[in-house]
Amino acid sequence: MEKSLKGLSTIIMAGGKGERLFPLTRDKAKPVITFGGVYRIIDFTLSNCLNSGIRRVWVLSQYGSFSLDQHLRLAWDIMRPDLEEYIYSMPPQQIMVNRWYRGTADSIYQNLNILQEERPRQVLILSGDHVYKMDYLEMLDFHEHRDADLTVAAVMVPRKEASPFGILHVDADSKIVGFLEKPQDPPGIPGNPDYALASMGVYLFKSEVLVEEVIRDAKNKESKHDFGGNIIPQMVGKKKVFAYNFHNPATGQPRYWRDIGLLDAYFQAHRDLLGPEPVFDLYDASWPVRHRTFMYPPAKYLYSGQAIIVEDSLIGTGCSIEGTVRESVLSPGVRVGPGARVDAAVLWDNVEIGAGAQVQRAIIEDGVKVPPGYTIGLDHEADARHFQITEGGIVVVPNNVIFEE
Q1: Is 226 helix (H, G, I), strand (E, B) or coil?
Q2: Alpha-carbon distance values, 18 to 92, 151, 175, 221, 279 (Å)
Q3: Among 150, 186, 257, 384, which is 20 to 30 Å from 338 by CA?
Q4: How many CB atoms are closer than 10 A to CB 35?
Q5: How far apart are CA 282 and CA 189, in angstroms?
Q6: Which residues contact 5 (CB under 8 A, 6 or more apart)?
Q7: pLDDT digits (tens, 9 = 90+) for 135-189
């Protein structure tokens, strides 16, 4: 496998604006949105690379690139260039063309100089905004054994729930015979018709095939220059294109993967971290997720004459709890005042919940100071006058909010 790694170039696409996560992406790149208290979303993809033995990575940035560059420098400055290790951030260079990235395929087209310099046999293309744990070498092994031109990672989803995804139609040998974008009647998997295969946005190309395809796509003025919408469909039936089923062979069940591009999905993914047997386990010592180290003291629980209750929650370092916290995720430096209640909430760095305040089913950005006695999430009619409320009823409180006295 080491021989394969030497012929592998890895590119993470991290330039998307993340408009569906607004206001969380108002002033920062989507891949560096806080997740799970101490992580940023891109930490999961980068940790997958590190745990797979991949230590040469290009990160293509664009929107809010400074926030991404800053995080990479603070959390991921661990590679040894003298050993040919690196994580390089690459905003649009405007060398080949005078424009920003127009789509995922165009971002690769504009950086073909990377491949010209490295001359890899295979190119692994990843997304910087998904949460999952994956050994990319298992996918590489699948790809090379089939001598595939392109392998697309896919996760099984129930057919009844598959319409929102890009669906891979495969034959019994896992060869892709069709790609359908958000189909009303998704095709089932051969031998498992109750499930469909949803594309994970993880692609493994033969290098020369990737170069050929993105150059052809760049010449097509009608194209949206997207891997799912354009590159894969134009290759199906002409090249050897396979689907890599991201499942547990021992149980036949799909492994965890979440696209958290929507606010409700972001909130639900945090729910997956909680409970005695979480759906997504952050405490798996065999697959550590690296993150930035925060210089905070330990969390503390201060008795002020009222009961302190903390149930089924993740509490970051430097937190100070004097009230009740249930089924919530607290980032470092959060303060919960005496008699305050936090239920089913995601609180970012240094949020302060004033004495007697109540917060439930909410996402609150960093630095927000909720006044004493204030309520969020209990009265949606009142909340809607000040905050955004998602379709799932989650209240989103941005860090530029001004509370009424």
Answers
A1: coil
A2: 17, 26, 32, 25, 25
A3: 384
A4: 26
A5: 30
A6: 53, 54, 137
A7: 999 999 999 999 999 999 999 999 999 998 999 999 999 999 999 988 999 999 9
**Residue 282 burial by CB count (10 A; 0-12/13-18/19+): exposed, middle or buried?**
middle
Q: How far is CA 37 from CA 62, 122, 243, 331, 365, in A?
A: 25, 35, 33, 4, 11
- The DSSP-derived string for 16-53 is ---GGGTTTTSSS-GGGSEETTTEETHHHHHHHHHHTT
Gap between the Cα atoms of 244 and 205, Å rounded: 13
383 C-beta neighbours (distance < 10 Å), count: 19
Per-residue pLDDT averaged across 62-85, rounded?
Answer: 87
Which residues lie closer than 8 Å to 309 by C-beta, 6 or more apart? 323, 324, 325, 326
Amino acid, res. 373 = G
- pLDDT above 70 (res 130): yes
Please give the single-letter amino acid code of residue 91. P
Coil, strand or helix: which one is 130? strand
d(CA 76, CA 250): 34
pLDDT at 84 over 90: no
The reported pTM is 0.94
> Nearest to residue 127, comparing CAs of 206, 224, 30, 213?
30
Both structure tokens of 55: 């230590």
Residue indicated by tokens 């033969």: 206
Q: Which two tokens stand for residue 269?
A: 């993914």
The owner of tokens 């020369």 is 208
